[in-house]
Amino acid sequence: MLKYFIYCRKSSEEEERQILSIEAQLQELRDYARQNNLFVIKEYTESRTAKEPGRPIFNQMLSEMEKGNASGILAWNPDRLARNSIDGGRIIYLVDTEKIKALKFPTFWFDTTPQGKFMLSVAFGQAKYYTDNLRENILRGIRQKLRRGELPAKAPLGYFNEPRLRTIEPDKATFNKMKNILELFAKGNHTITGIQKEMFSLGLASKTGKPIHLSSIGSMLTNPFYYGYFKYRDELVKGSHKPMISKKLFDQIQASLDSNGKPRKVKKPQAFDFLNFALCGECGYSITAEKHVKKSGLRFVYYRCTHKSKVKICGQRGFLREEELAEQVINICQKVSIPDEWRDKFLGKVAEWEQEQNDSSGTFAQNIKEKMGGVDIKIERLSEGYLEGAFELPEYHEKKNQLVEQRKDLEEKLECFEQKGNHWLELLKNWILEANQAGNLAKTKNFPGMRNFLKTVGSNRILIGGKLKISFKKEYDLLRNLPEEARGETPEWTRSGSNRRPLACHASALAS
What we know:
By secondary structure, the protein is an alpha/beta fold. The protein folds into 4 domains: 3-138, 3-Layer(aba) Sandwich (Rossmann fold), CATH 3.40.50.1390; 159-258, Alpha-Beta Complex (Hect, E3 ligase catalytic domain fold); 279-340 and 428-511, no CATH class; 362-403. The protein contains 17 helices and 14 strands. The protein has helices at 22-35, 56-66, 78-81, 85-96, 114-147, 175-186, 192-201, 214-221, 247-258, 322-335, 340-359, 362-387, 393-419, 423-444, 447-457, 474-480, 501-511; strands at 3-9, 39-46, 72-74, 102-104, 159-162, 167-170, 229-232, 235-238, 279-280, 287-293, 299-305, 320-321, 458-464, 467-472. The strands form 5 sheets. A 4-stranded parallel β-sheet has the order 2-1-3-4, with helices on both faces. The chain has a 3-stranded mixed β-sheet with strand order 9-13-14. The chain starts with a strand and ends with a helix. The model is unreliable at 493-512 (pLDDT under 50).
């Protein structure tokens, strides 16, 4: 009596989803063996694709047959045994050498005659043809998706695969959360471990409910999909999906990754209004603050040089009371401020200039579009050169990715210009509002606000002889050097018919 092996195979590949499960195949083959009085000595099951040789269980079964431990195989269909020419040829060779004397299939007839072996080879050929043809159809579908700018893979975190339209759409539950995470990391204040904790706190976790693995987070931070592109086989492709961030922010994320995302030290709240605000004008060391409490309970705060210099003896031995320093800060803020009346007239004049600027912005936009067209031509020529064999594939990918990124930068520059074409006017407007706000800070005696304002607009802040001195930017020097009597007059340049020269020069300083 012939001894048989049962062989069942099922893979998760797309083309085999309709094939019976291993359990169903086993039950069918056991019933078939019982009905036909076949003597089965062992069952082999495997969850592997048969498109390529190298299945360990299949090879083990054939090795047992070569040893003579069995001489027959029972399988659901010939395509369960082989979908490639090597495994199919090996089975036919074992039939030729009579190592395999019988092959039984509930869905296919076979006997060891020349006609039977011919039909078996046809069945294996059909299985291989089906696999090859299906692969070609899948690749054609992938190429079409790439032409439409669709990622032929699972959507990254923040998006989902829309099954009806077969597109990738923003996930309402995670899109904004992931965007906040990317913006947070771009600031350079977090490590990847810190970002992992932030993501988990927002509910961005793995399928098991645990924090996302660090390597997965690293892949997310370097994924160009989030700024509107994606990589397929090392080639950068423009996507049709909604970008989550800009290319500029993506570059900031890469810079943060390069610096290992080292966190900055969190500054503790200051106990004194003007601590770490100025340096000693004689030795250059910091001005420190001291609090003195009298027996009566009165509290006084003084500022003095730390006298830490070991090279130069500092002659600034005096103490400056906080009230006196605060009064000087108020006076300085008032000198570099703009009155409310001036603010309204200034903003009105800026609105006129904005209208003039809009009329002449088309030339700049046209230049950017021409540059984009030049990049498109380079990409086309590069592709032609690759097809003609002038480049190897890795070199082609590298050069094309550089051009694609260059074009993306130009796109964002054009978009930014269209949104903020009057950049210098925006800076000028912000300067007017900030200078006006300085006066309001002085009126309300908002010392933390005045300190931050003066640190922003002035440098080289020193205390010498009990006097605070600050080097201001040019646009604030314009205000500080105005005579007192001029502050009560309306600036001549705001009147109808005047040009922009008196303040436009300071706007250019702001823009630079």
